[in-house]
Design brief:
The complex is a heterodimer of chains A (about 575) and B (about 140). Chain A has about 575 residues and is α/β, with parallel strands linked by helices. Chain A contains 15 helices and 18 strands. In chain A, strands 1, 2, 3, 4, 5, 6 and 7 form a seven-stranded mixed sheet that branches. A five-stranded antiparallel sheet of chain A has the order 14-15-16-17-18. In chain A, strands 8-9-10-11 form a four-stranded antiparallel sheet, sandwiched between helices. In chain A, strand 5 and strand 6 form a beta hairpin. With about 140 residues, chain B is an alpha+beta fold. Chain B is built from five helices and four strands, in the order αααααββββ. In chain B, about 45% of the residues lie in helices and about 30% in strands. A four-stranded antiparallel sheet of chain B has the order 1-2-3-4. The chains are: A alpha/beta (about 575), B alpha+beta (about 140). Chains A and B meet through helix 7, strand 5 and strand 6 of A and helix 5, strand 2, strand 3 and strand 4 of B.
Chain lengths: ~575, ~140
C-alpha cells in the first residue's frame, strides 16, 4: 500500500510539472473504439497511395483474394498503389452502426491517411467497397453513425472525407436489396433460382440478421430505403469522388419467333441482389458505371423449363458475389483508380512529383542538363535543390496543393538568413530551417526521416521517457499508478508500424484501488504514423525537448477478454504530436 | 416366448412406420416444387381464359394483342409495333395440355393456322387473376 501511495504521489507531482503537460491528452480529443485493430501494410506504405478494400454482408476479406488474378493483385499492380483489406467478418451480419464496422473503419481510414502523409505519401486513401462495405464507408464519415453505440467518454474518431481520394462501390445497396425484401416480384425470385449461390444469399437474408433487416426496402416500386438506410449520410453530403459500379442481369423472351424482348431492362434484377438503381443510389451519371452481366431466357426459368434443373445452367457473366473476382469488374476498378492514384502521386513527397512542380514553375530547366540534387518534405511543405552545370545550383520551396506541388522560381539560398532570398510560397522560418537542414542544403547532414526505422517513444505521467530503438523495447509500460502493460515480445518493427504483445495488469479497485485485485488481459500494442517530432527524453517531466523520428500514434487493443475500455485505444499512451 | 413375439412385431411395425414418415419427409423436402406441382395440376384453364387468349393472339390490332401479354412486356411490344402473328392467323389452344408448375406459372400448347402454321408452347404467367403470355417455345 505504501508503494502504491508513493506511486500515486509521484504521479500527481509529475502531472503538476508543466513540461509533462506537453505530453498529456489535449482535452476533448476523439478516441478509437476498443478492439479495433490497426492497418498493417506489408513492407510499409512509403509514398504509395493506400487503397483500402472493404468487404460486404456475410463476407470476409478473402473475397479480395479469390480469382485469377485476384482483386488484390490487380490493384497492387497499379503503379504507386498499395492495397490493404479491412476485416469485419466476425460482425458481418450486423448493421454498419455496430462500432466494429463503422467506427473501426473510420479509425482505419484515418490511420492509413495519417501514415501516408507522415511517410511522404499523398495522405489520402482510395476505398474499394463491395456491397454493404459501401454503406460502412457512409457510416465511417458520419460522427452520429460512428458514435451510434457510444454514449460515454470522448467521441470516437470519424473519418475525415478530405482524407478520402475516391470511393469505388461494387453493388452497394444504397436503397436496400430486393433479395432481402419480402414480397418481391415473383419473376425476380424465379430468376434468383437460376443463379448459382443466389438461393444461399436469399437464405442469409431470410435469417433476419440486423443487417438483413436494415437492407429490406420499404417499397420496391419506387425503390424506398429502410429507415436504417435512410439515416446514413448521403454520398452528395459526404462530398468524396465516387464511382458506383452496378451489375445488370436481364431476362429475355421471344414471342412466336419475334424478339428478343427484354424484361427488367431498367435494372430491376440488377446484379441478382441489388438493383442498378440501388447500386448507383444518388450517384450522377458521370459517377455511375453499369456492367452487363448477361441475360437469362424466360424459357429457362424453372417454372417453364422442360428439364429442371437445367442440363446446362444459365451462364451469366457476373452477379453480386463475383463482383470482386470478375475480370471486367476488376478492370473497371483499375480504370477508376489509375487516374486518381496518378493525381494523388503528384502530391506525394517523391522526386518525380517534386520535379513536376519545379518544372511547372521553371520551364527553362528543360533546356539545361539538370538534376534534382536533394530534397526534403515535412507536412505540406518541401524544399528542393537542383543543379545544372551551365547555371549552377538553385533552391525552391514547394507547397502541396490538391493538384500537386506548387513552387516559385529557383534562386540561391542564404543559409545565414533563412529563408533568405527564396521566393514565395514560403513556410514558417523554423520549418524552412528544418527543411533546409533535412535536405542537407544548410548545415547538418540530411535527416534520416523517411529512410530509417522509427524509434518507439511513449509518454505517460508515470514512466521516465525514453526512445527505444530496435531491438531494444520497453519491458513495462506504466499507464498510471495502478495499471501497466508488461511487454512480452515485439512481433514486427517496420518503417510504418510496429506491433508488440503483452499483458495488461489492471487494478479492479475493489473495494478500493489500494486493496484492489490485479486482473490481467492479453493485449497488443501497435505503434503507427512515424514522423519527426518533438519528444521529452530523460526523466519524468524532462524539459529538454529533442527532435526524433518516432511513431506518433500508439494504440492498445485487447486480444481476448473484456478489459476496461479506458485502458484500450489510442489515447492510453501519448507519443509526440 | 409369446411376449417376445409381440415385442418383435411391435418393433418391426415401429421401424416400418418411421421409415415411411422419413421417406415422405425426404420426398417433400428434396423437391420443394413437388407439392405445388401436384396441387397445381388440378388447376384448369377456364374456357373464358382460353377464349380470351385465342382472341388476343390473333387480334387484328397490336393494342388488343398487347392485352394478353405480361405487363412487363407490353411497353416494349407496343414500341416495336409488330403484331404477334401474321394477318389471317388463327390460334387454337389445346386446353388439355395446360400444366401449372406453380400457382403463378403455366404452359399450354397452341396451334397456329394461317400463313405460317406452327405449333407453339405458350409460357403463361398469372397477373391480377388473368393468365398472360410471357414467352413461347416452338414445338416440333
Amino acid at each position: 500500500v505504501n508503494s502504491r501511495a508513493a506511486r500515486a504521489l509521484a504521479a500527481i507531482a509529475a502531472m503538476l510539472l508543466p513540461a509533462a503537460a506537453v505530453c498529456l491528452p489535449a482535452g476533448a480529443a476523439t478516441q478509437s473504439p476498443p478492439g479495433c485493430s490497426s492497418p498493417v501494410v506489408p513492407g510499409g506504405l512509403g509514398t504509395s497511395v493506400p487503397v483500402l478494400l472493404v468487404h460486404g454482408f456475410n463476407e470476409r476479406p478473402a473475397v479480395w483474394n479469390k480469382g485469377t488474378p485476384t482483386m488484390l493483385e490487380t490493384i497492387d499492380a497499379i503503379p504507386n498503389v498499395k492495397a490493404v483489406t479491412f476485416n469485419y467478418s466476425m460482425w458481418n451480419t450486423m448493421w454498419v452502426t455496430n462500432y466494429r464496422i463503422g467506427a473501426c473503419l473510420a479509425t482505419w481510414i484515418t490511420s492509413l491517411a495519417t501514415t501516408s502523409k507522415n511517410a511522404g505519401g499523398p495522405g489520402k486513401v482510395i476505398i474499394v467497397a463491395h456491397s454493404m462495405g459501401g454503406l460502412a464507408v457512409r457510416c465511417a464519415v458520419d460522427p452520429k453513425c460512428v458514435n451510434h453505440d457510444h454514449t460515454t467518454g470522448p467521441p470516437w474518431q470519424t473519418a475525415d472525407s478530405s482524407q478520402i481520394g475516391l470511393v469505388i462501390t461494387l453493388g452497394t445497396p444504397n436503397l436496400g436489396s430486393w433479395l432481402a425484401t419480402p414480397g418481391r416480384p415473383f419473376l425476380l425470385s424465379a430468376a434468383c433460382q437460376l443463379i448459382p449461390l443466389c438461393a444461399g444469399r436469399a437464405k442469409a437474408f431470410a435469417a433476419g440478421s440486423q443487417a438483413a433487416q436494415a437492407l429490406q426496402e420499404q417499397s420496391l416500386t419506387p425503390e424506398t430505403p429502410s429507415a436504417d438506410l435512410a439515416m446514413l449520410k448521403s454520398w452528395s453530403s459526404i462530398g468524396v469522388p465516387l464511382d458506383a459500379l452496378a451489375g445488370r442481369i436481364t431476362l429475355t423472351t421471344s414471342l412466336f419467333g419475334r424478339g428478343p424482348f427484354c424484361i427488367f431492362c431498367r435494372g430491376e434484377l440488377g446484379d441478382g441482389v441489388v438493383t442498378v438503381g440501388s447500386a448507383q443510389g444518388e450517384a450522377t451519371p458521370a459517377e455511375s458505371t453499369t456492367i452487363d452481366c448477361g441475360y437469362i431466357p424466360v424459357s429457362d426459368l424453372s417454372p417453364y423449363s422442360v428439364i429442371y434443373p437445367l442440363a446446362a445452367p444459365v451462364t451469366l457473366k457476373c452477379w453480386h458475389l463475383t463482383e470482386t473476382t470478375d475480370p471486367v469488374w476488376q478492370a473497371a476498378v483499375v480504370t477508376a483508380i489509375r487516374p486518381v492514384a496518378m493525381a494523388l502521386s503528384l502530391t506525394a513527397c517523391t522526386s518525380s512529383a517534386l520535379t513536376k512542380g519545379l518544372l511547372a514553375a521553371n520551364p527553362q530547366l528543360k533546356s539545361y542538363n539538370w538534376t534534382l540534387k536533394s530534397s526534403a518534405c515535412q507536412g505540406d511543405w518541401a524544399v528542393a535543390q537542383v543543379y545544372a552545370p551551365a547555371v549552377g545550383q538553385g533552391t525552391a520551396f514547394l507547397r502541396r496543393t490538391p493538384s500537386g506541388w506548387h513552387s516559385a522560381a529557383l534562386s540561391e539560398v542564404n543559409c545565414s538568413a533563412i529563408p533568405g532570398p527564396l521566393a514565395p510560397p514560403l513556410p514558417t522560418p523554423s520549418l524552412a530551417a528544418s527543411l533546409l537542414r533535412q535536405a542537407g542544403i544548410c548545415g547538418a547532414t540530411p535527416s534520416p526521416t523517411q529512410t530509417s526505422t522509427p524509434g518507439f517513444y511513449f509518454a505517460t505521467s508515470w514512466e521516465p521517457q525514453k526512445i527505444y530503438v530496435d531491438p531494444a523495447y520497453p519491458k513495462r509500460m506504466g499507464i498510471d499508478n495502478h495499471d501497466w502493460i508488461t511487454i512480452q515480445k515485439v512481433n514486427t518493427w517496420g518503417s510504418d508500424s510496429m506491433s508488440m504483445t503483452g499483458v495488461l495488469n489492471y487494478d479492479n479497485c475493489q473495494p478500493d484501488c489500494a486493496s484492489g485485485q490485479e486482473v490481467t488481459f492479453p493485449v497488443q500494442v501497435i505503434a503507427t504514423a512515424p514522423k519527426t517530432c518533438t519528444v521529452q527524453i530523460g526523466t519524468v517531466g524532462s524539459t529538454s525537448p529533442d527532435e526524433a523520428y518516432v511513431y506518433s500514434m500508439i494504440s492498445v487493443s485487447a486480444l481476448s477478454g473484456k478489459s476496461p475500455s479506458f485502458l484500450l485505444g489510442n489515447s492510453v499512451f501519448k507519443s509526440c504530436s | 416366448v409369446r411376449k417376445q413375439w409381440i415385442f418383435g412385431l411391435v418393433a418391426v411395425a415401429v421401424v416400418l412406420a418411421a421409415g415411411g414418415v422419413a421417406a415422405a419427409l425426404f420426398a417433400t423436402a428434396g423437391n420443394p416444387r413437388s407439392s405445388a406441382r401436384t396441387s397445381a395440376l388440378a388447376v384448369k384453364l377456364s374456357s373464358a381464359q382460353q377464349a380470351r387468349l385465342e382472341r388476343g393472339l390473333a387480334a387484328p390490332s397490336i393494342t388488343a394483342e398487347a392485352a394478353v401479354l405480361a405487363v412487363e412486356l407490353r411497353a416494349q411490344f407496343l414500341e416495336k409495333g409488330q403484331s404477334l402473328l401474321p394477318g389471317g392467323s388463327q390460334a387454337r389452344i389445346a386446353a388439355a395440355t395446360f400444366k401449372t408448375s406453380s400457382p403463378r406459372t403455366a404452359t399450354v400448347d397452341a396451334s397456329i393456322t394461317g400463313p405460317q402454321p406452327r405449333r407453339w408452347q405458350l409460357l403463361l404467367i398469372k397477373e391480377n387473376g388473368s393468365w398472360l403470355l410471357i414467352g413461347t417455345r416452338e414445338l416440333r
